[in-house]
Structure formats: C-alpha cells, structure tokens
Specification:
Blueprint (H helix, E strand, L loop, with lengths): L12 H4 L10 E12 L2 E13 L4 E5 L6 H8 L7 E6 L2 E2 L5 H11 E4 L11 H11 L4 H14 L15 H12 L6 E5 L7 H16 L3 E6 L2 H4 L5 E6 L2 E4 L2
Parallel strand pairs: 3-8, 3-9, 6-7, 7-8
Antiparallel strand pairs: 1-2, 1-4, 4-5, 9-10
Helix pairs in contact: 4-5, 4-6, 5-6, 6-7
Length: 248
C-alpha cells in the first residue's frame, strides 16, 4: 500500500491506525524544511532534508547541539509539522490530517525516548508505563499485565511502586524505554538517550535499543554517543546546520 501520491485519498483513521499494515518505508521525508520565527529572526532548523527509512532499520543521526536533530525527530514523530516539503510516516502523509488524528497516530505508531526522561512525577514507574495504554483505552487488566511484563524486561520489576525521584537516572531512562514500548509501536524514536547516564547505565540503554531493533522495531536515534554511532548494522547520518548527510 503506497499513499504517497498526492492524488490518492487520505486514509481514514480506522484504515491508518493498524500497526500491522505492511509498508515500504517507515519514514519518507522529501525536501523538508522547518523554520522558526523569533521576533524578527528566522531560524532555519531543517533545510531541504530528504530521508528514507525502511521498516526494521536501525538509523543513527549524529551532529552538534543545535544542528536540527531534535527538530527532525519531532517531525518524524508528528510532534511538529514541517514548514515545507513532504512527511510520510508508515505511508501516511502527516500534514493532510488534523492534530486529533496525529495524536492518535503518535500513540499507535511511535514510542519516544527523551534525554530528560519526561516521566510524570506523580506517577509510579508502573503507572507511567500504563499511561499510554490507558490513553488507548485498552482493558485495565491487560494494561497492568503488559506494564508488569515491560518492567521485568527492563530489569525493574522491583521498582514498580517507586516514583521517578526515587529512581536513579539510569532507572528512569529504563522506565522511559518501557513506556515507549507500551503500545508496541513499530517505530522507536530516541533523542540523546544516554546523554545523562553513567557508563554502566548507558550500556544497558544501548543494549535495550539493540534488542528492540532485533525485535523488528524501526529505531531512529539522535546521539553524541560514539558507541551508539558504531552500532553494528546501523545506517549513519550527520546533521549540521539543518542539513542531513549520509555518514560515510
């Protein structure tokens, strides 16, 4: 199924929100720009980015702070919209849909891992993982069972009732990864996932990302971490000044 042709009718939400759909590209960006206006200044965060990722690939984008990596990730994850160009995720032309649709699409298709974890401070580790599934209106018994399984997978079964401030940085990031996996999305997006961690914790996160890719997930990571950049089998890019280049 390919809905990248402008003459094709947009998919309905029922047709689109089905992660088992087979697609040629998990992500396809064509000549994408993103410009922010601050007062009288224009900041060109992305400049003519074209980018294709097939399902199941492990993609790493490196580059200096302020180069546009987070903006690129936010556009792929439907958090932000491009100023111009075409963004197609799982064969869905994102800009053709409203924010209500995009919110449902994000919840179904993408799992985010943030540098600052972004856990809800008043919820326990278990409740943070349950939250995306509750938004998807899954049965409570299934939600709790899957959250417990994910905590076990990331090695934190004994931290289920801990609040974020009671967890180490590495533990918080592992909870964040479990939360990203909650709705079993086909695409995992990670923004500097090891930046604030000690070496041991960073190693655990790298291994979890490799495992997710081994499970067939499309993994796209923005990072300064040389060990993530050198992940075997990863396709590498460099971003600088809003321009994306293949990293040879």
């Amino acid at each position: 199924m390919d809905n990248t042709d402008d003459t094709t009718e947009p998919l309905t939400i029922e047709e689109t929100v089905a992660p088992e759909r087979e697609v040629e590209f998990a992500v396809r960006l064509t000549d994408v720009t993103r410009t922010y206006v601050l007062g009288k200044r224009e900041i060109h965060a992305l400049q003519g980015v074209s980018f294709e990722v097939r399902p199941g690939e492990y993609v790493v984008v490196r580059g200096p702070s302020g180069s546009g990596k987070t903006t690129l990730l936010n556009i792929i994850g439907c958090i932000d919209l491009a100023t111009s160009g075409r963004v197609v995720v799982m064969d869905v032309p994102i800009a053709e849909y409203d924010e209500v649709f995009r919110a449902t699409f994000r919840l179904t298709y993408t799992g985010f891992i943030f540098q600052s974890y972004n856990l809800i401070s008043t919820l326990t580790a278990m409740e943070n993982i349950m939250f995306p599934m509750q938004l998807s209106e899954q049965p409570e018994s299934e939600v709790r069972e899957r959250a417990a399984m994910l905590l076990e997978r990331v090695g934190l079964a004994d931290r289920a009732d801990h609040l974020p401030w009671q967890l180490s940085s590495g533990e918080q990031q592992r909870v964040a990864i479990a939360r990203a996996m909650a709705n079993d999305p086909p695409i995992i997006l990670a923004d500097e996932p090891t930046a604030n961690l000690d070496q041991e914790s960073a190693g655990m996160i790298r291994e979890l990302l490799r495992e997710l890719n081994g499970d067939g997930k499309t993994v796209i990571v923005m990072t300064h971490d040389d060990e993530i950049v050198s992940t075997p089998g990863a396709r590498r890019f460099v971003m600088d000044g809003g321009v994306l280049l293949q990293d040879d």
